[in-house]
Amino acid sequence: MNREQGQATVELALLLPFLVGLVLTVVQVGLIMRDRVALTHVARTAARVATVDPSPAAVRSAARHAGLVGSRLSVRVIRRGDLATVEVTYRAPTDVPLVGAVVGDVSMSERLVARVER
Asked: Residue 26 has what pLDDT?
């Protein structure tokens, strides 16, 4: 009976690093998906401001205050006629131990076109 308990301990010791890595990977994917949803919110907020305010600075300011880290966020506004295009790019950090060192930051972008109000 003592041998069987030792075998279970060895199996757990061999399997535990794999399980910890799997859990950390799932957490990192969840954080990236959260940032993706937040990026969509930021783009919508910026597009809403772009429809009523012709100033690109106002659009950038609205995007930077919508919930993501401003230093990792890039906002571009293009106006053509009665359409305003807002392109938002974000570098999502991968800070989860072990996984973040392997993967590196993830770049994502969102583009919205809205009709300008007159």
From this structure: 94
Tokens representing residue 17 in the block: 């690093």
Going through the chain in order, the beta strands assigned E by DSSP cover 73-80, 83-92, 106-115
Instruction: Specify which residues 83 forms β-bridges with.
Output: 80, 115
Q: What is the dihedral of CA 50, 51, 55, 59, to 10 degrees?
A: -20
Helix 2-52 to helix 56-64 angle (10° resolution) is: 160
Residue linked to tokens 């308990």: 5
At 91 the pLDDT is 95
CA-CA distances (angstroms) from residue 29 to 11, 50, 64, 77, 101? 27, 31, 23, 29, 14
pLDDT at 1 over 60: no
Determine contact, residues 33/58, Cβ cutoff 8 Å.
Answer: no
Q: Is the pLDDT of residue 3 over 80?
A: no
What residue spans define the domains of the chain? 2-115
Sign of the CA dihedral 10, 13, 19, 21?
negative
